[in-house]
């Protein structure tokens, strides 16, 4: 979401919440986001939560015709990949991340990690085949669709594990690393 703000050159105030920062369990936060999760935004009194929804909202409000394509088919190509990230890529990548980064070695379930890694590899094979014919997930231009997919792929590539080489994903990922907002807001040490 912060990467989206950077792409749109939007000013924002960041308030760290969740895990060590707390806040998400407070009644005030739960009034904004009943799920008690991050992120949540407040935009002139309008409250919105869910990362991809926030990216869509900001892109449509401030980047219609660019980050949110004006052409209907281009827009829904981007939206499709945002939904694919949620339904297909995020869960296995997140499961491997939690197992290897946030779970003590003695509490890890190697079989579960192996299964999640295999599922992530299947998803990345789909993405690699898709990127063989285009520069970005939505086509030739960077769009809102690249933001959630790029964040998940960063997390995957930052994990210390053996993975299948995906040349088209790698080429696309290198393009993302050229974007200042990606470097500043996504390329952070895993913790």
What characteristics describe this protein?
191 residues; Glutathione S-transferase Yfyf (Class Pi), Chain A, domain 2; Glutaredoxin; 2 domains; 2 strands; two-stranded antiparallel ribbon; single chain; 8 helices
- Mean pLDDT over the residues: 93
Q: What is the number of strand segments? A: 2
CATH top level of the largest domain?
Answer: Mainly Alpha
* Helix and strand composition category: mainly alpha
Q: Shape from CA axes? A: globular
* CATH architecture field of the largest domain: Up-down Bundle
Distance between the termini: 18 Å
Number of individual domains: 2
Main sheet characteristics: 2 strands, antiparallel
Overall radius of gyration: 17 Å
Percent helix, as a range, is 55-70%
CATH topology name of the largest domain, in short, is Glutathione S-transferase Yfyf (Class Pi), Chain A, domain 2
């Amino acid at each position: 979401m912060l990467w989206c703000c950077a792409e749109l050159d939007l000013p924002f105030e960041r308030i760290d919440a969740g895990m060590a920062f707390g806040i998400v369990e407070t009644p005030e936060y739960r009034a904004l986001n009943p799920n008690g999760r991050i992120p949540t935004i407040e935009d002139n009194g309008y409250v919105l939560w869910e990362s991809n929804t926030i990216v869509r909202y900001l892109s449509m409000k401030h980047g219609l015709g660019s980050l949110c394509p004006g052409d209907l088919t281009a827009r829904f190509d981007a939206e499709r990949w945002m939904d694919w990230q949620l339904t297909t890529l995020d869960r296995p990548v997140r499961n491997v991340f939690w197992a290897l980064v946030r779970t003590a070695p003695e509490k890890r379930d190697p079989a579960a990690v192996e299964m999640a890694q295999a599922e992530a590899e299947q998803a990345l094979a789909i993405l690699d085949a898709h990127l063989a014919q285009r520069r970005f997930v939505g086509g030739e231009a960077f769009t809102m669709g690249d933001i959630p997919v790029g964040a998940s792929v960063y997390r995957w590539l930052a994990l210390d594990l053996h993975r299948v080489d995906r040349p088209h994903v790698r080429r696309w990922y290198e393009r993302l690393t050229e974007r200042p907002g990606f470097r500043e807001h996504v390329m952070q040490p895993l913790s």
